[in-house]
Design a protein that fits this description.
mainly beta, single chain, six-stranded antiparallel sheet, 1 helix
């Protein structure tokens, strides 16, 4: 089975400067992240909310993730371990790029 790819719209400033509000990224669903990669995640305490965060390290129950902007991010520091749903592989719009 081939990995499923889809686009995701980034909302908010938590990943600036790497990603900005309204950037469109390509996500590979089900991919296992490596520390330093950006991933699409959710938390058990907020199951209806998806977030884009940088993967730090594995922890019991998931992954420790953080936003690149410490002044505008809610992440594992507040919400605990995150479930990684997929890995961001590229920014498609407005500044295409593969190194995030």
């Amino acid at each position: 089975m081939r990995p499923r790819l889809s686009t995701v719209l980034v909302r908010g400033p938590s990943m600036a400067p790497a990603l900005k509000d309204e950037d469109i990224v390509l996500v590979r669903w089900g991919a296992v992240p490596r520390p330093g990669q950006i991933a699409l995640v959710r938390w058990a305490s907020r199951p209806g909310q998806l977030s884009v965060k940088r993967v730090s390290h594995p922890v019991d129950g998931g992954w420790h993730v953080r936003g690149d902007n410490p002044f505008a991010s809610t992440d594992s520091e507040q919400l605990g371990a995150a479930e990684v749903l997929g890995v961001v592989t590229a920014r498609l719009w407005p500044r295409p790029g593969f190194r995030l």
